[in-house]
Amino acid sequence: MATELFDRDVDVVIVGAGPVGTLLAAELRMARVRVVVLERLPERSPHSKAFGLHARSLESLDRRGLVERFCEGARSWNNGHFAGLDEWVDFSTLDSNHGYALLSEQTRTERLLEEHALEVGAEIRRGHEATAVRQDEDGVEVGVSGPDGRYTLRAKYVVGCDGGRSLVRREAGIGFPGTGGRVTARLGDVVLADRENAPMGMERTERGLLFCVPLDDTYHRISTFDFERGKGPGEELTMDELTTSLREIWGCDMGAHSPRWLSWFTDSACQADRYREGRILLAGDAAHTHFPVGGQGVNLGLQDAFNLGWKLAAAVHGWAPEGLLDSYDKERQAPARRVLANTRAQIALMNPDPYVTQLRELFTDLMRKEQVNRHLAEMLSGVTVRYELDGPKHRLLGDFARDLELRADDGKSLLPEHLHGATGVLLDLADRPEVSEVWREWGERVLAVERVRHVRAACDQEPELAGLLVRPDGYVAWAADRDASGAELRDGLGAALATWFGTA
Ligand SMILES: Cc1cc2nc3c(=O)[nH]c(=O)nc-3n(C[C@H](O)[C@H](O)[C@H](O)COP(=O)(O)OP(=O)(O)OC[C@H]3O[C@@H](n4cnc5c(N)ncnc54)[C@H](O)[C@@H]3O)c2cc1C
């Protein structure tokens, strides 16, 4: 007979300890929220879906003091691909301290995020599967099947970070519209007998596309993209099927054998029609799925977590201003829409149809133009994400507060370390009394960095800033130039603090 337990001491239950759920748990813990993560797998998966982290993820991890541990011992590279075209996308042109892609397999990313989450006190229950989610006016109940039987957890909020087939999304009745799968990718981490002659990277053929990279001294990851022959729901991929697919698409199977992981997926691209239903929220793949081309899924999901964590914490602690929690959906829908769109565009360019060959040649030529190449680099790395925020117009409002724009004379970047505590930060850059006067009332929720000296804007022509209010996720909530009047400073800053950090 299953046991029924009630645990009423939880503020937030996160379903899913993938990269997104784990980071969100850490963000909530840093804001002193009591959080439990339920993960149905008894142990972390030994298989890596993703391989890399892009610039915006690295910038954000830097703002939690984590980027060094991610970079330590990891390789990085300046180039990426778009649709497997012959011209590389050059990340070194990015206006970022992290103008590169970091090679960090998903297993490693998950391990490092879990270490961080545990360090800040998150509880992760492995082997505990969420089986039902029901909300009422005051809270949400999650049915759980754990190693010792069934129990129920009650929390103020539940976040579904439970991947593309999200139970939480279904239970909340949130729609997941999008485009169905037309391309089938068959993936294997295998040993290649003919290792020497294996291609490297992406190769388009008359029948589809082959992806092939060495993982270590023994294994290769190979994947065929088949534009004709699909698979039925629930079917397993076998090694025989993979070798047949290799022969069809690449012309030979390279002596592939001894798979340690076989998987398949399609290019179906869907997005939740809302990221919040009452006390239930979605983040990561539970909110958006797409073909993993360009390595964007983990990065997109991590940004969901950075955006949601502090807002949900404010709601839990009862000081969230009206609309704060809903701003999560408003802000995070658009970046996911753009990623879905660019992955669909890449799939279209990968089609083996001979007409597409001409399109690829044209596109490759365009990529040799600096502006086009930079546009793609910015898009894939997520550094152009900015939010439409209300408030006095300023060129930095809603943009990510880049460390490049705030540098001390010794070259040291000032901003990231002030955000390590995951609170809002107000930089008083011109010693204007109005800034510290207004801030005093919000002192418990916003860290003020007073009298930051020797700070200049990155571009010498720009007027220097008088102050900058940065949200915990690193985005600019208010900014004013040095020529702003006292009233402009007082009113603008006061309104921004109230909008994002509640009544004083
Ligand atoms: C082949 C491949 C290559 C990829 N390459 C890249 C890349 O290079 N870069 C990149 O950024 N992205 C890449 N992606 C995408 C990336 O892997 C996903 O976007 C990412 O894993 C999403 O993270 P998540 O935490 O949202 O969900 P997931 O990683 O799917 O984690 C969800 C977790 O929830 C758990 N769970 C599910 N249901 C329940 C339940 N009912 N109760 C408890 N636990 C539950 C699951 O066991 C799982 O651990 C790739 C994907 C694939 C398939």
Short description:
The protein is of the alpha+beta class and 504 residues long. Helix content is 31%, strand content 24%. The radius of gyration is 24 Å and the shape is globular.
Task: Give an account of the 3D structure.
The protein is an alpha+beta fold and 504 residues long. It folds into three domains: 6-51 and 105-178 and 270-350, FAD/NAD(P)-binding domain (3-Layer(bba) Sandwich); 184-266, 2-Layer Sandwich (Alpha-Beta Plaits); 403-501, Glutaredoxin, CATH 3.40.30.120. The protein has 13 helices and 27 strands. The chain has helices at residues 19-30, 55-62, 67-71, 106-119, 167-172, 239-250, 297-317, 326-350, 354-367, 370-381, 415-418, 433-439, 486-501, and strands at 6-7, 12-15, 35-39, 52-53, 76-77, 79-80, 89-90, 101-103, 123-126, 129-135, 140-146, 149-155, 157-160, 178-179, 184-192, 201-204, 208-214, 219-226, 256-266, 269-271, 276-277, 280-282, 288-289, 424-428, 446-449, 465-470, 476-481. The strands form seven sheets. The chain has a six-stranded mixed β-sheet. Strands 16-17-18-15-19 form a five-stranded antiparallel β-sheet, covered by helices on one side. A four-stranded mixed β-sheet has the order 1-12-11-10. Helix 1 (19-30) links the parallel strand 2 (12-15) and strand 3. Helix 1 runs parallel beside helix 4 and helix 12 packs parallel to helix 13. The longest helix has 25 residues, at 326-350. The chain is globular, with a radius of gyration of 24 Å. The termini are far apart. The relative contact order is 0.13. Residues 1-6 have low confidence and may be disordered. Flavin-adenine dinucleotide is lined by residues 15-21, 38-41, 49-52, 106, 129-130, 161-163, 167, 187, 265, 284-285, 292, 295-299, 301.
